[in-house]
Amino acid sequence: MTEARTHTAAELLTVLSARQLKDGQVVFAGVGIPLLAATLAQRLACPGLTILFEGGVIGTFIERGKLPPSTNDQRCTKRANMVLGSAEVLLLLQRGYVDVGFMGGAQIDQYGNLNSSFIGDPQNPKTRLPGTGGGNDIASLTAMIVAMKHEKRRFVEQVDFITSPGWLRGNDTRRESGLGHGGMYRVVTDLAVFGFDEVTRRMTVVALNPGVTREQVQENTGFPLIFNERVGETEPLSEEELAVLRVLDPDRRYTA
Amino acid sequence: MMQQAPDYGRLRRDLAARDRSLREKVMSLEEAAALVRDGDNVGIGGSTMSRTPMGMIWGLIRARRRNLTCSRCIVSSDGDLLFGSGACERMITSWFSQGILWGISKVMRHYVETGKARFDEWSHLAIGMRFRAGAMGVPFMPMRSMLGSDVLRQRPEAVEIECPFTKDKVLLVPALNPDVALIHVQRCDAYGNAQIDGLTFMDLDLAIAANKVILTTERIVSNDQIRRAPDLTKIPFFAVEAVVELPFGCAPHECYGVYEPMMRHMEEYVALVNRDPVRGMEEYLDRFVYGPQSWAEFLSLIGVGELLQAARAGASIYDD
Question: Do B112 and B154 meet the contact criterion of CB atoms below 8 Å apart?
């Protein structure tokens, strides 16, 4: 593979998170980079990937240049295998049909909990954010991949509000809360790829993005990071990955 | 404040009191708006920018309805208009914003952060299970998400229990039975037998959970046409109290297979309210909601060119 020369941070995020998916999986994708990355994976390494949307779609096949403005628009259904009710598609998560959930994130903490509801005190919020949508359901009921921009204010020790549960307070707290399945698996950012310790459930660095140092990742993170014994270095984006991505999103609706 | 599950006896009495015979119920938008009372609990069909009953909401705002509690699975600019006009004081939903293209709704932020209106947040599945319990005539539904989260801590109406059979922790969410549901469909007959193409979201449960449904429809077809394909009927006539023929009734949102969202108008709207969520909203309401003499005049303000473009994109879902 030839190495791609220039790209945006959003393009990097999209390609790296697409690489986390495996052929044959059933993935429940949110709008934006997850939708685009799942579609990219489907065009490259995972032709057998089944994509679900909370609008009520199974087996979607997004057309190039026709990215939907949400996962509830008619464009999501084009060439899909099935449309169904929103509660019905969410219930497939609860029944166990979904291998991986795939979402963006506004704020995350060291246990992979996500906040998309409030900045500041929920009783008297500085900022009211849009809320969970299906995020809480997906994060509660299946394994999760999150793609997000890496900034210190977004990577905090403890989120202001747990909208979508990761490992809650670490160790066994997720299971004890009644969430016996799934949990945060990978976080992909423009700096690195993260996993979670199997016992403490704290965020760990799995691999650094090309040209990124340990210090750089730590400096941009609001809590002390754990580096895996062998921290890998992610392969640079290939010309092919970038070319296919740009065909899918020629207007850079999601990847500006 | 605890919200109890609705009183089952009252739900049954209210339905029994309604004339559920096979009768024509076609009326004007204004007549349908008069069926909604101040303070009603109003369920809204569709999701985000899809099959939103925008025309009916437009009609309720023009009728100066007040103190409504509204519920919808996912809320977009419909919620902005309901808050900004003063029609709705409380929104029950899983997500409330403008969408990925425009970011957080400044109107929602203004009303919620100043305490002028409430946004009660539930998970998307929880909204679905609340409508489902309502449609089933049971006081609650059990589910396995929201547990352990702060979304649950904000919702004392939901109850965590140990399952009597398996000892698993499960969450019980109370039935939601709106006084009235507003649902837009592609076609229905004069009795209210409604066909929905494409994504149905939570509309089937919402229709049965509500005490009554106000349908707006792209067009009214004959009862014979309905009876030729009863498998396409998604809402039965006896749930319906009013039928309003309202072409482009989701504008500027989309209606599956008929038109996609009218993006230029949406962008004009977002630019207005993002500059100033109060005065921008006043200007939008004056120009596009209170100003026009009719729904047709509102559509002409969006513009024939944009309507045609949206219609062409809408129909293209059926192209190979």
Answer: no
CATH number where B132 lies:
3.40.1080.10
- Complex ipTM, two decimals? 0.96
For domain A9-248, the CATH superfamily is Glutaconate Coenzyme A-transferase (3.40.1080.10)
- Please indicate, yes or no, if residue B315 is contained in any of the structural domains: no
Cβ neighbourhood burial of A61 (10 Å; 0-12, 13-18, 19+): middle
Query: What digits encode the pLDDT tens for the residues B11-33?
Result: 999 999 999 999 999 999 999 99
Phi, psi torsion values for B169, nearest 5 degrees: -75, 130
Q: Chain A interface, mutation test: which of B145, B155, B197, B270, most A Cβ atoms within 10 Å?
A: B145
| Cβ atoms of residues B216 and B188 within 8 Å | no
Which of B280, B279, B252, B256 has the alpha carbon at shortest distance from B266? B252
Q: Note the pLDDT tens digit of each residue in B221-257.
A: 999 999 999 999 999 999 999 999 999 999 999 999 9
Per-state percent for chain A, helix, strand, coil, to nearest 5? 25, 25, 50
Q: Which chain B residues in 250-269 lie under 8 Å from chain A, judged by CB atoms?
A: 254, 256-257, 260-261
Catalytic residues of A: 54
Name the pTM for this structure: 0.97
